[in-house]
Amino acid sequence: MKVIVDMDVCKDHGQCVFAAPEVFQINENGRLVYVAEPDESLRDAVEEAADVCPLQAITIED
Amino acid sequence: MGTTRRIVIAGASMGGLRAAERLRAGGFTGEIVAIGDEPHLPYNRPPLSKEALATEVTHEALAFRLRPAVADVAWRLGVRVAGADLDARAVRLGDGTELTYDGLVVATGMRPRRLHLADSTRPGQTRPGPVTGRHVVRTIEDARALRAELRPGANVLVAGAGFIGCEVAATARTLGASVTVVAPEDVPMLRPLGPGLGAALRRRHEERGVAFLLGRTIAAFLGETGRAGEGSRVTGAELSDGTRVAADVVVEAVGSVANTEWLAGNGLDLSDGVLCDDALRVEGRRGVVAVGDIARFPNPRYDEVPRRVEHWSIPTDTARHAAITLLADLGLAEPAATPFAPLPTFWSDQYELRLQSFGAPALGGSDIRVLEGDLDGEVVVGYHRDGELVGVVLVGMPSAAARYRAACSAAA
Questions:
Q1: How far does the CA of residue B168 sit from the closest CA of chain A (Å)?
Q2: Are A56 and A48 in contact (CB under 8 A)?
């Protein structure tokens, strides 16, 4: 599974962090960092993260 | 197997989409029909008062992605749900079609409340005042129409100092318009944020040139003279204290009304949205659930009072729980083991300011404390009830959000 966050659209809300903390984090500068190829076992959490993104900036590629 | 079962989702916005996804995720393989009065597939509304309003409003940019699991949902768009007979398990559409169902999801959401005021330039007239130049922000079409009028130098009057009013004010100011906000409360965003933070945010708006006329309401709209009220263009407003304000664009952000009329006649409590039990089942009706901000439900995190919650997180949260309830009512799943108890979450962007809220600040309005930072910079404000933290609002401080969210989540 590949995760792509459109960083031009992302506004660092961090909602994805609550849904999938293994994949998304807000660093000490307040910017989003993420794992681009997370384990398949995290799919549900990543899909939830994509759902709850206020800007809908997260895409999942299989 | 016998006949295919059908679930009708009344409402094709975010709540309807999330409900369809969760019904499929819960193993429902029958027919799903989603009915929406807008001509569009579900799209994301918050940018309509912010990013999209500031740039360009297109469905393409706002549309939610449709997962493969919901590819076979039958979307009936551009037609409203006109009525329902819950005993007969049937809904009637605006085009006269009748649809029977095994399960029903009520997700028709809200519409903006409008100001119904007479035209003060024609005393004694009962017909509506000027129409052109008056806007609301709910749909893509609304935002497009407003966007077209937000030119540099435009004179914009915003009625309402809640989040949408303040977001529109910020966006309009950023686009170079003159902006005045009129509202009955003395502080913007008073109910969700409390007086201290609300006053601090007012100062931020004023620094950028937004004028506030608070503690008063719009009593009448002023229109072009010499023309019939209907269709004439707004030129300003007269306020409850007699002040006259010139404006060529008015934005009405004065709250919303639940779209429940189609459910009338079924003996439901529709006094404020649709009253639900703690599993999001419409009171006393098996096989009927409500999703999104139309649902009035108790949240055992806080108390037993059923409330509607108009936060963006609510369609997703309610859909998760309501889908399980509905499938259980249809004998297709085990009911949820615990009542619905979401952690309310919302955000607002005004200029470069990011507000994030977790929990229920409005319930802790009598004990508000600055937990970190200061009100005129980045700040974390805590809202307490009986000494316990029930909500937090952050302005900025993104890296602290997870910690405070956890504190709110644990406190309940």
A1: 17
A2: no
Question: Do residues B20 and B60 lie in contact, with contact meaning Cβ atoms separated by under 8 Å?
Answer: no
* Rounded-to-integer distance, Cα B335 and Cα B277, Å: 13
Query: Looking at this predicted complex, what is its ipTM?
Result: 0.88
With an 8 Å Cβ cutoff, are B354 and A55 in contact? no
CA distance B408 to B404: 6
Contacts of B69 (CB under 8 A, 6+ apart): B21, B24, B25
The shortest C-alpha distance from A38 to chain B (Å) reads 19
pLDDT classification of A12: cutoffs 50, 70, 90: confident
Candidates B181, B204, B137, B142; CA nearest to B349 is: B204
Flag if B347 and A17 touch (Cβ within 8 Å). Answer: no
Strands (DSSP E) found in B87-190: 90-93, 98-100, 103-106, 110-112, 134-135, 155-159, 178-183
Which residues of chain A make contact with B354, given a CB cutoff of 8 A? 11-13
C-alpha B355/C-alpha B311 separation (Å) is: 13
Angle, helix B14-25 to helix B313-329, in steps of 10 degrees: 40
What pLDDT score does A11 carry? Answer: 84
Ranges B24-28, B190-194, B229-233: which has the least confidence? B229-233
Cβ atoms of residues B392 and B359 within 8 Å: yes
